[in-house]
Amino acid sequence: MIEDVQELYRRGIRLTPEAYELLLKGKVAQALIERIITSGETVIGKELLDGFSAENEKIPDQPTVNRSPTFKPVAKEYAPDFKVINRSDVSGKSDCTGKLDDFVAHFRNRFERISALLRTRVTPNAIVKSAKLKETQGSKVRLIAMVTQKKVTKKGNLFLDVEDEEGAAKVVIPKDAPAFKDAKRLLNDDIIALDGRNADELFICENIEWPDVRVAREQKKSENDVAIAYISDLHFGSKKFLENEFSQFISWLNGTEGREELAGKVKYLMIAGDAVDGIGVYPSQEKELAVKDIYKQYEMLAEALEKVPDYITVIICPGNHDAVRKAEPQPIIPYDMFRTEVTRVGNPSKLEIEGLKHLMYHGTSLDSIISGISGLSYDRPEEAMLELVKRRHLSPIYGDNLIVPESRDYLVVDDEPDIVHMGHVHKNGYMLYRGVRLINSGTFQDRTEFQVRMGHVPTPGVVPVLETKSGKMTNLGFKQA
Ligand SMILES: [Fe+2]
Ligand SMILES: [Fe+2]
């Protein structure tokens, strides 16, 4: 212990006589010494020391693993078959300089790519630019444009301002038009196709079409009989991190007796962000933290993930609590911060796993989608995810969710995914939509004070697992008895 005290002195940290006594007498955990060093305090008295000790006691134990002696995982027999689609990941490619031109290039890129998707849709109507609408007077045409404003008139019709690369148009969707019900879900910046007729200065719209995914689409399956486990929002370092439940999950991966069959198939573990609670993410967060050092939080995460069997590929992207820039798209969590061998990808990212196209996104924009479209709720995150898929964009409302205007918009969903994995809302949810599996993986953090105030009820300890050959989805519950 005397060496630890000397270490503190070497670092210029002084102890009051009382604190010195306590440190010398007591059996002091290494974590406490580190806490003193990282606290930034230069004089440590008894009160501070007591405070640090109390915090230290709350630091959760690392997961313990109960291995079944008979566990023979089939996943071990297969080589990993996955690739990261680099073009879709911002990591190492950020080119935003913060100038106005960046916004112009960003929105142009978004418009070009989403309107290209819409141009592939079969339509009997000729596609025209807004600047040419006057020449089409009376005949039925299709306009592809971005919504810049939406309002309901006194007569109950919907009025839109829209723009394309060549100009702008004013659109009315009469309340009795087939498009009216769907159009009420329109958001600013949505890029859609509008079918209708031009009449003087107004485009009378009867139908709208979202870029969406194709209607007739088979659910894709793999050749190898392996499984993928989807998790997110572990929040290591939070007082509400559920270490016992997470420990059970890790034990299950290692083959808990009686539950070995599905566990043995798990070849991939996807972590869609917020793996740690971070620091300074929201005001007064320190009161909710068991571990106030971000390095320590990642260290605990790394230690826990080291207990995942080594034939399982762990793939992780950041979320809004992670130690990378807050604005999306987010680059990978750097090795300096999180020292362990896992596959790091940006947020969002696209991957092919066992031939299945994965779109991995933390889901921060789900907040703005849920509050922006009536009828959506935190209870059914899969429905909010569906709205993003329909728009082929992961954060369509500009301004509500922090975005870096890169010259390439990394949040556009160019290819139709087979699986969309998100987290962030701490609520497990699943939906099969036109052959696309929408998975929200829930959390390993207990209900927070904020969630109580907001009336959100999370589903901690639930892990969705997909068997890639059969397409079977299982929701496993890891709850402390
Ligand atoms: Fe979270
Ligand atoms: Fe989050």
Radius of gyration: 26 Å
Query: Which strand order spans the largest sheet, edge to edge or round the barrel?
Result: 3-14-15-16-18-17
- Which fold name fills CATH's third level, the topology of the largest domain? Purple Acid Phosphatase, chain A, domain 2
Contiguous low-pLDDT stretches (5 residues minimum) are: none
Number of domains: 3
Task: Give a written overview of the molecule.
The chain is of the alpha/beta class and 481 residues long. It has 3 domains: 2-58, Helicase, Ruva Protein, domain 3; 74-93 and 224-477, 4-Layer Sandwich (Purple Acid Phosphatase, chain A, domain 2), CATH 3.60.21; 121-209, OB fold (Dihydrolipoamide Acetyltransferase, E2P) (Beta Barrel), CATH 2.40.50. It has helices spanning 2-10, 17-25, 30-39, 46-58, 100-119, 180-183, 243-253, 260-263, 294-305, 366-372, 381-391, 449-454; strands at 14-15, 43-44, 82-84, 126-128, 140-152, 158-164, 167-173, 191-199, 202-209, 227-231, 266-272, 313-317, 343-344, 349-353, 356-360, 419-422, 428-433, 436-441, 462-467, 473-477. The strands form 4 sheets. It has a 6-stranded mixed β-sheet, covered by helices on one side. The chain has a 6-stranded mixed β-sheet with strand order 13-12-11-10-19-20, with no helix packed on it. A 5-stranded mixed beta barrel has the order 5-6-7-9-8. Helix 3 crosses helix 4 (46-58). The longest helix is centred in the N-terminal third of the chain and has 20 residues, at 100-119. The chain is globular and about 90 Å long. The site of one fe (ii) ion has 6 residues, from loops.
